[in-house]
Amino acid sequence: MISGARKGAFSGLRKLVAAAMAQELKAFVVPGPELARAHGLDLAKAGLPLAVTPRHAGVLLIISNLPEGLRDAASVAYAQMPRPRAILALGAGNLAPLPVADVSADLTQEGLLSGLAQLRRAIAAGAFGNDVTDFEAPALEIRVEYTCPMHPEVVSDKPGNCPKCGMVLMPRETDASGGHAGHTPNESEATMSQHNTPEHSKHASAEAAQYTCPMHPEVVSAEPGSCPKCGMFLMPVEGKDADDKHSGHGEHSQHASAEATQYTCPMHPEVVSAEPGSCPKCGMFLVPVDDKDADDKHSGHGNHASAETDDGIEAHFMSMVGITKDLPRSSDGLQMDWLEVPYGPFFPGLPGGLGLQLTLDGDTVSGTGIRNLVGFAAPLVSTPVAAEDFIAQMMKTMPHAPVSYGLLAVCAIENAAGTKAREDTARGRAAALERERIASHLSWLSDFGAQTGFRWLATSAAALQLKVQGADTGQIAALTPAITALLGRLRRAPLMRMRLKGIARLDDSVDAAGPLARAIGLNEDVRSDDQTFSALGFSPALRTGGDALARLQLRCDEIDQSLKLIAAAGIITAPVAEDIGKAKGEGAAALETPRGAAHLRLVLKKGKVISAELDTPSTRHVALIEDMTAQQELGDALVAINSLDLSPWEIGMESRA
Amino acid sequence: MNIAIILGSLALGAYIIAIVESWATYGRLRLAGPALAALALLGRESVLARKPDRLFFETAPVLLLVAGLLAVAVIPLAPDLIITDLSSGALFLNAALAYVLVALIMAGWGANGAYGMIGGWRFLGQFIAYAMLIVMPITAVAMRAESLMTTQIVISQVELWNIFYQPIGFVLFVIAAMGLAYLPPLDLPLAPGDLAGGVEAEYTGVRLGVLRLARMIIILSLAGATVTFYLGGWLGPWLPPWAWSAIKILVVTVAMLMAGHYMPRIREARYLALSWKLGISLALANIFLVGVIALVVPI
Amino acid sequence: MNAEMIFLTFFGGAAVWFGIVVFRTHSMVRSALALLFSQTAIGAMFLVMQAEFLGVLQIMMMATEMSVMAIFMVMFMMDPGGLGAMDMTHQKRLSLWAGGVGLVAALGLTLGVDWGPAALSVPSASAQIEMLGIELLGRSMFIFESAGLTILTAMVAATMVAIAPQDKGGAK
Fold it and tell me: How far is it, in rounded angstroms, from Cα B140 to Cα A288?
């Protein structure tokens, strides 16, 4: 029986159903299909279609060893899968808090195939059972935390006031780990249940303000919130007798304010009454007029910011104009409830591992919180490691560009040791880097296709990527026509220009590197200074648009260019350092990875690396997300993030702390 | 009897397009695929989201199915092979399919998840884009046939199919129909890359099965409507009428399913702008042209 | 009592019941959709009464109109999901009076007006559509065309007014 079996006797029809399920498996890939491809797994060939949400998946496919944060998020995804459900772990170690994998296998295509076959048998034989165990994701245990509507960074376990602005903290439900882990449609419920609480900030000064319902003036509260009678937002009222009401004796204060109040009709000012009621002329509700207010108005200082008496609007009419007058406004001028929606770390349209929390105003993004769950942490080296181990470690840490970072380490070590690679080795390394660039750009194209629903692109780019990875020069030459044909069709695809033009336009004031900078027209490319590349006839490809379309076109241009460079180099070598013996010294290297220039500084002592400092392009690019997505329509915002081609593994953790 | 035949052929048609759709999506042709998928969905849990609007959540898939089935009721497969030949058939088709919108809003809202909710309301925006472009080309078709009866509309094309008589209307109608059936590149309410399945994101098990079946039927009914309005319905030489209807409907369905394969999803705002600024102008021009031709040329 | 009367009573009852649900529920979306189904039931009543075109039109138009209303409710109302157990009734005294007066007026009209002899046969559905078309594009053409144009103008004007002025080049 599989661990995620569904309760029920395993007999008759259920055996048939289980057999069907074993054939109709859909996988939800953790952390994401792009990592599976980077490890050379061809899921399409293995007959394992991808599900876009855990709700539609039958198997949770875990790729490689996951850090703890991702395992928590994965446990949420697993909890969302309908039973019968199973876990297939490829090359993964500890899975806790997830249950033990039903099938574990190596992180290779053969491992995938044999593991999948084994899993299909297990499901056909044990999809249902009588003694099923329940799985509760620890990250989904709900607790209540308190946060300031103005300063979302203020989060407290206890109710109280915001230390920054003194406003009352609002309760919200959150998961036990304190963050919003996981791709969890469910979690939005926490926000949905707050529809009746004012998530928007109240600019009214909290200490002097009291709140009342625009419909039910008898409801008076010292705190913002919603009316118990109708659920409307309570409106701030700046009352002179605010102190009275703060004492909480609602009955008394109501009485006190009634004494001083007269009522008049908004349409017929000549109608004045001592009691609330409706106008004898038009039947409208009478509006309370405070004596003091009235005096003020006569003297001409009638500029009270009272939301209750908008000109020409019946006071107790449910006027959103009045109610939302002081609230922050989004770009379209429409005032709507804000939703906080988790995107990632396993969201199908975003790089796996990158967790985003989008604040949505309608379907416009009004804020983005970033929580990267992978990424490398400084210091890279805590105890001295041998040079070749350091190179291997770099390649392992950066699964999306292992060759680039391996080469970077090689170059830095050689620089520190004072050796220099032979000319043909350097050419081979350059070709290896370009091969990885092609694979990386193809992988990005596939992700882009998956995100925008361009399915032909998603499948064909992924298939080509898998072939390019690890290909030798001859194989690359054989693949060149297919790649060129793909790029040609892509450039001619209908709707593409309309989809991307003008989205996430960057100008030269931003801190961008690599393809992002070159798509603005900036000649930023480490390869320009490299003799090997000059000898191969390299000059950087440039585009000028600076928007998502220019980035797509630039990446296509670069694939073309890299194909030519590999053909010119004629040899591909793996990133292996020359023997450096017991060399010591300081070294630095810069290398144009597929995502931009990465810089590495390291110190060698007795042939061992004792300290290293790495600067990656993704670390710089992740900071662009917030401005890029602000006030964008949801689909456009996601395309914008996708166009950055971030690799969450290449983001330095300290920069997000 | 007619009802049984049409429902039977509907089931067969849904099965065939399910094969084609999975082939288009995953690149593998599996004849037993849809049957296995249906069985697998039957066996999975029907998860209920936390704090759902349960009434909406449960009703929506059924309402979607009913809307699709009612739309099929006025599609003629042969001169006598129609469930009900209403005298306002072309309008009735619209009325039935208007409830696709209601069902999707209910499905999105009922699940109590942000992805679904945004998906549901997005479809309302999408409706604003496609609605006029469904109705206005039908107006021109009805003008030529001088009737709203679907059988009359087919008979009016004996001399010349409407695809040649009013090509602008045909193009507009097919695009709008793809919007109504939320097929890629107009699959904004599902948008796997933006909304992780959107209105379907919270559905599992049997309910998901019903949602998907209903969508198949809606696609078939719209393909049937395209064939009836523009491709001469059952008309054709040599083969019996029902065979012509079946062939044409399947060809239109496959074309509609495959088109989205080769382009990215459209931007919501662009879709609305294009539909209103370009689409409605063209639809009005189409009505005018058809009116002039109908007055001048006697075909 | 024939089958038609049974159906008519059933749909009439459904229309009234959904009408009550509009005010009994706490959720704005449910309220809007209850109104939709109330109107759909009225459309079904038209169909039972052999006014096919009117019935189909009613069923079609209401689906979209009420859905659009629902999104405006969600956009502009607090607590559209009804989680705060919001009360849908407002200005009770006035509403009661208005409702009462409306009921009396409707009953008065129904009972007081001379409806003439009951029609024993109804023209066929296609004949009805033809007659409706001739009416719309004949005697009543001017009224309907000018009304249509007015509504279109109002729609365009409302959209123009609703577009918030964009502060171009201003401080961010």
Answer: 58
**Closest Cα partner for A72 from A217, A202, A177?**
A177
Nearest one of B145, B129, B127, B14 to B90, comparing CA atoms: B145
Q: Are C90 and A215 an interchain contact pair (Cβ–Cβ within 8 Å)?
A: yes
Start-to-end C-alpha separation, chain A:
43
Which of B57, B91, B152 to mutate to probe the C interface, most C CBs <10 Å?
B91
Q: What is the rounded average pLDDT for all residues in chain A?
A: 75
**Cβ A129 vs Cβ A10: under 8 Å:** yes
Q: Which domain holds residue A406?
A: 375-656
Residue with structure tokens 């500890």? A94
Q: How far apart are CA A429 and CA A409, in angstroms?
A: 12
Counted across chains A and B, CB pairs separated by less than 8 A come out at 174
- Tell me the pLDDT tens digit for each residue of A100-119: 888 888 888 898 999 989 88
Q: How far is B21 from chain C (nearest CA, A)?
A: 29
Q: How far is C139 from chain A (nearest CA, A)?
A: 39
The answer, yes or no, to whether residue B100 has pLDDT greater than 90, is yes
Are C9 and C62 found together in one domain? yes
Residue in B closest to A14 by C-alpha:
B43
pLDDT at res. A312:
46
Q: Are A83 and A4 in contact (CB under 8 A)?
A: yes
Which residues in chain A have their CB less than 8 angstroms from residue C76's CB? 320, 335
Q: What are phi and psi of A441, to 5 degrees?
A: -65, -40
| A567 in contact with chain B, both atoms CB, cutoff 8 A | no
The verdict on A334 touching B (C-beta cutoff 8 Å) is no
Q: Name the closest residue on chain B to residue A642, using Cα atoms.
A: B193
Query: Is there a contact between B101 and C129 if contact means CB atoms under 8 Å apart?
Result: no
**Which DSSP state fits B234?**
T
What is the predicted ipTM?
0.88
Please give the tally of structural domains in chain C.
Answer: 2
Minimum-distance CB partner of A195 among C80, C87, C164: C80
What does residue B164 show for φ and ψ, rounded to 5 degrees?
A: -90, -30
Q: How many CB atoms lie within 10 A of CB C108?
A: 10
| Number of domains making up chain A | 1
Has residue C113 been placed in a domain? no
Position of tokens 């060129």? A484
Chains that touch B (3 or more CB pairs under 8 A): A, C
B290 to chain A, closest Cα gap in Å: 29
CB pairs A-C closer than 8 Å:
50
Tens-digit pLDDT profile for residues A230-246? 555 566 554 433 333 33
Residue-by-residue DSSP string for A40-90: T--TTTTT-PBPSSGGG-SEEEEESPPPHHHHHHHHHHHHHSPSSBEEEEE
**pLDDT per residue over B33-43, tens digit each?**
888 888 888 88
* Interstrand relation of A272-273 and A209-212 (parallel, antiparallel or unpaired): unpaired
pLDDT digits (tens, 9 = 90+) for A421-448: 788 888 888 888 889 999 999 999 999 9
Q: Domain of C16?
A: 1-81
**What is the percent of chain B with per-residue pLDDT over 70, rounded to a whole number?**
99
Distance from the C66 Cα atom to the nearest Cα atom in chain A, whole angstroms: 19
How close C114 comes to chain B (CA, Å)?
31
Distance separating alpha carbons of residues A445 and A643, to the nearest angstrom: 10
Q: Of C53, C81, C109, which one is at a domain's C-terminal end?
A: C81
CATH code of the domain in which A523 resides: 1.10.645.10
Interface of A with C in 265-284 (CB under 8 A): 278, 283
Chain B CB contacts of C68 under 8 Å are: 124
Least confident of B219-228, C15-24, C72-81: C72-81
- Chain B partners of A351 at a C-beta cutoff of 8 Å? none
CB-CB under 8 Å, B205 with A452: no
